[in-house]
Write a structure and sequence with these properties.
There is one protein chain. The chain is mainly α. It contains eleven helices and four strands.
Length: about 240
């Protein structure tokens, strides 16, 4: 910026944002290309208070129990449909990476054909041939995700946080995306800021953009932001899906 322009800004008491702050205020993302070690340290220094952890954990347990009870008829119907369609297991467990890199098994209703991933982990696609007809309905309505409330009760995941990724993808993304490890400094979530702001990640580039939303959440998370994300997730489920 030239000195004359700077003088004009000062004279008019203009509010100036640097590019990184503008990204956060306008797009609600933390751009990876503008990250540095100092900012990374500031992000991880955002420690949760005891009150925040107490409130959030209490709400998680209550909501997870309510969801499991209220949706039990849907889960029963879904289980019957899955068995009739393919005679396969009703539930499936998939390894995911949690806080500080700890691995755990996430629980979902089975929505893919038997041996759908015999050739290894794959990115989700728009018209995924691995998904059964019943599975497509379960995914559109998000019924396949409901068993993850058990993961919430166990403490594997929170209601809100970065979505836990598969180890095969994490290994690749750690190499491709700078500071990717920061999303593992907090507990992963059933839903999150990236989930309500972005689509499914189908590539490394998609994953980087989602990570920028995750960074914003890690940096700015608070009780009211969590409540807003939960309410927005409910709206999305009942209107147009994710």
């Amino acid at each position: 910026i030239e000195s004359s322009e700077l003088a004009h800004l000062i004279a008019n008491q203009s509010h100036v944002l640097d590019l990184r702050q503008a990204f956060q205020n306008i797009l609600h993302r933390v751009p990876v290309v503008l990250m540095n070690d100092t900012l990374a340290l500031r992000i991880v220094e955002n420690r949760d208070t005891d009150l925040y952890e107490f409130l959030v954990r209490g709400i998680e347990i209550i909501l997870a129990l309510c969801i499991l009870v209220l949706t039990s008829p849907l889960l029963l119907l879904a289980a019957i449909a899955i068995r009739i369609e393919d005679s396969r297991s009703i539930f499936y467990k998939q390894e995911r990476v949690g806080r500080h890199g700890k691995r755990f098994s996430i629980i979902k209703l089975q929505s893919m054909y038997t041996n759908a991933e015999k050739n290894g982990a794959q990115w989700a696609t728009h018209n995924d041939s691995r998904i059964t007809p019943v599975g497509k309905i379960l995914r559109i309505t998000h019924i396949d995700e409901i068993p993850q409330m058990w993961n919430v009760l166990k403490g594997d995941i929170a209601l809100v946080g970065p979505r836990p990724e598969r180890p095969e993808f994490v290994e690749k993304l750690d190499k491709e995306i700078p500071y990717y490890f920061l999303r593992h400094t907090i507990k992963p979530g059933f839903t999150g800021w990236a989930q309500i702001k972005f689509r499914y990640a189908r590539s490394v580039m998609d994953s980087q953009e989602k990570f920028e939303y995750d960074l914003y959440y890690v940096k700015n998370r608070n009780f009211f932001l969590d409540i807003g994300i939960i309410l927005k997730t409910i709206q999305i489920v009942f209107t147009h899906g994710v």
